[in-house]
Amino acid sequence: MTGDQPGFSTRAIHAGQEPDPETGAVILPIHTSTTFEQDAVGQTRSTFDYSRAGNPTRLAVETVLASLEGGTYGRSFASGMAATDTALRTLVRPGDHVVLPNDVYGGTFRLLDKVLTEWGVTYSLASVGDVDAMAAAVTPATKVLWVETPTNPLLNIADIGALADIAHSSNATLVVDNTFASPYLQQPLALGADVVMHSTTKYLGGHSDVIGGALITDDAELAERFEFLQKSAGAVPGPFDSYLLLRGIKTLAVRMEQHCTNAETIASLLAEHPKVAEVIYPGLDSHPGHAVAAKQMRRFGGMISVRLAGGRDGSRVRGR
Fold first, then answer.
1. Any idea which residues carry the catalytic annotation?
2. Alpha-carbon distance 245 to 58, whole Å?
3. Which residues contact 295 (CB under 8 A, 6 or more apart)?
4. Are 216 and 65 in contact, with CB atoms under 8 Å apart?
5. Record: fold of 5-249
6. Could you tell me how far CA 134 lies from the centroid of its own chain?
7. Which one has a higher pLDDT value, 5 or 190?
8. At 320, is the pLDDT very low, low, confident or very high (cuts 50, 70, 90)?
9. Domain ranges of the chain
10. Where would I find the H helices in 51-91?
11. Residue 195: its pLDDT value, please?
12. What is the C-alpha separation between 56 and 227, in angstroms, rounded?
């Protein structure tokens, strides 16, 4: 795993968020202005002219997200699905093909199955934990390997490096949904991914009070195309959303450590419970992706799935 915790935590607090030069405020102001003054037509006083195209609070979010993922360019969106839609509409055209995990997040599947197929895009499903199966799903028309690791909700683990090799040998782009790991636990760009996607609603926001999404890449051309759709389609976060996300990111490292500790304890307890047939958690030796997760993640995450014994109805199990 690249990076050290103090360096990560410091960047989470400070990257893109220098003290205000006029007042010395250490917390970035919430820039609510929709419009920025121009000295003349087309001559702005800064890089900002209209907040759909760019906003100082949003720029801070994009800067810190890129830093935490070890990437060069960050683009933030109004939701994780807005980020997903932007990535796919940038990377595929009618007649192109996408490979997806067979337990891909339902919103991602719905976007491809119900929307992009009407545009002439096709897709195949394969087990993301099976490198050979993912490779076999690639066709000459494949432009994107879209993977989650861990997946939502079955917590399958993708070997990012191996799938990057497969994608690049086929002139395809590897996109990794890093939502369940967060950049604290895993940094896919360093492992060969081309694009990282986040629903920042989840661990990055951390307080269940903001919806958001992000794309991070080292590819300048892709970043420019993401920015074009960001501006043209307008699915951008507002300044208050950006502020809430900045606030959440500051505590990401300490939160993720506690999430992982809690999950490890609960997974061990559930593994001994007579009403639980199977505990699915990458931190357990019994998980088929345990070795890969140990190789590419700092720890194993805060999500656990279970299968109940005796065919019990999972809807009756609820926790807070």
1. 52, 105, 177, 202
2. 10
3. none
4. yes
5. Aspartate Aminotransferase; domain 2 (3.40.640)
6. 20
7. 190
8. low
9. 5-249, 253-316
10. 56-68, 80-91
11. 99
12. 15
Mind giving me the DSSP string for 193-253?
A: -SEEEEETTTTTT-SS----EEEEES-HHHHHHHHHHHHHH-----HHHHHHHHHHHTTHH
Q: How far apart are CA 7 and CA 222, in angstroms?
A: 27
Q: What is the pLDDT of residues 294-318, one digit of tens each?
A: 999 999 999 999 999 987 777 777 6
3-class secondary-structure state, position 177: strand
* Beta carbons within 10 angstroms of residue 172's beta carbon: 25
Q: Residue 234 has which token pair?
A: 């307008």
- pLDDT tens per residue, range 127-149: 999 999 999 999 999 999 999 99
Question: Which superfamily, per CATH, for 253-316?
Answer: Aspartate Aminotransferase, domain 1 (3.90.1150.10)
Strand pairing partners for 216? 74, 196
Peptide bond between residue 19 and the one before it cis (omega within 30 degrees of 0): no
- Other Cβ atoms less than 10 A from the Cβ of 36: the count is 18
273-282 per-position pLDDT tens digit: 999 999 999 9
CA distance 212 to 199: 6
Beta-bridge mates of residue 196: 176, 216
Rounded Cα distance between 134 and 137, Å, is 5
Percentage of the chain beyond pLDDT 90 is 88
Amino acid symbol at 14: H
User: Does pLDDT of 162 surpass 90?
Assistant: yes
In 115-213, alpha helices (H) = 131-137, 160-169, 182-185
- Minimum mean pLDDT among 19-28, 56-65, 163-172, 278-287: which range? 19-28
Structure tokens at 199: 């629903």
Closest by Cα among 229, 241, 239 to 82: 229
Whether the Cβ atoms of residue 185 and residue 296 lie closer than 8 Å to each other: no
What's the longest Cα–Cα distance across the chain? 73
